[in-house]
Amino acid sequence: MILGNLTEVPATDPETLLRLRDSVYSDDLFITAVANLDIFSWLDENPADMQKICSSLQIEERPLDVMLTLFKSLGLIMEKEGRYHLTELSKDHLSKSSPWFLGPYISSLKERPICSEMLKVLKTGKPANWGAKKDAREWSLAMEDDLFARAFTAGMDSRGAYLAPILAKTIDLSGYSRLLDIAGASGIYSAAIVSQHPHLTASVFEKPPVDRIAKYSIDKRNLSDKIGVISGDMFRDEFPRGFDVHLFSNVLHDWDIGDVRTLLENSYRNLNPGGRVMIHGAHLNAEKSGPLPVAEYSVLIMFSTEGKCYSISEMEEMLDETGFSEITYVPTVANRSVIMGEKLV
Q1: pLDDT digits (tens, 9 = 90+) for 88-140
Q2: 76-97 b/e with 16+ CB inside 10 Å = b?
């Protein structure tokens, strides 16, 4: 079912339901860290920075960063001057030097199939197949298959039916006229924004086959007079010019830092002077110690894509390096937020 009225939100809050889905791999990461890496016992004897942990335990930096963020959010480790230490909780129960060590109990679940896949992701830095299915491809390649793309886009559209109207209500776009929704999937965020800001028009920038899915969804919402679809690959093509708002909604977290910088640079080059970039998604706090639901969600993103959930400070730094200024952070709902930057010249 496609929601037509994108100016209303339900009376109930589905945040708990979203978290049940989004946190699905965080337990497996914890079990893998205890059973296969014994990372807490190692840190008890060797408080270390990220580079030392990577080299000693042979873990790639991106998944290690996600793991350390999760454990900080859970109160299991703390960071002091760039080095990671155990907390009293993990000293008592997760270090094998303690008489209350729970390692054998936690490790009794280490044969879970996801744990072996998780260990591969930690060791290689490469994402697993979507949903860890043996006959599937990693997410970015699977999205080139029409059936998978339709199912995945429908899933993101159903989530957007709640998140998109609240994003649209939260932001002031009174000074802008044309929005480019980059990798906008079904176009639900564009649809919500033009529904609540009727002076705006929008275009969804998507590659096949998702461009056709977007056109279908926009037509079903009777918004084809307000929202167009432009076919293109965001990593191969320059973004179309003539837009004064660029929206990345639940996009940048799917890609590693180098790719995120590439996308932001493309945005800055082609955005109208005086325009705004908006990055909507789940962001960690500046210290990367939470919120816990975002740290849990970052595990899913890390496991299934080439990215992770970025912190406010990481996004601010990348926006500033790209040339954007007047950077602001605005919470929306369900641990989501929007980070905005202005192109002043």
Answers
A1: 999 999 999 999 999 999 999 999 999 999 999 999 999 997 655 455 456 67
A2: bbbbeeeebebbeebbebbbee
**CA-based nearest residue to 333, from 24, 25, 18, 74:** 18
Q: What are the boundaries of each domain within the chain? A: 19-140, 146-342
251 residue type, one letter: V
Strands 276-281, 337-342: pairing is antiparallel
User: What is the DSSP annotation of 138-150?
Assistant: BHHHHTTSHHHHH
Q: What is the C-alpha to C-alpha distance for residues 252 and 229, in angstroms, rounded to an integer?
A: 20
**182, 246 Cβ separation under 8 angstroms:** yes
Pick 146-342's CATH classification: 3.20.20.370, 3.40.50.720, 3.40.50.150, 3.30.590.10: 3.40.50.150
Token readout for 11 is 């009376």
DSSP track, 55-116: HHHT--HHHHHHHHHHHHHTTSEEEETTEEEE-HHHHHHTSTTSTT--HHHHHTTTTSHHHH
Using CA atoms, how far apart are residues 331 and 282, in angstroms rounded to an integer? 9
Cβ atoms within 10 Å of 269's Cβ, excluding its own: 13
The residue count of the chain comes to 345
**Which CATH code is given to the segment(s) 19-140?**
1.10.10.10
pLDDT in tens, 231-283: 999 999 999 999 999 999 999 999 999 999 999 999 999 999 999 999 999 99
pTM for the whole structure: 0.94
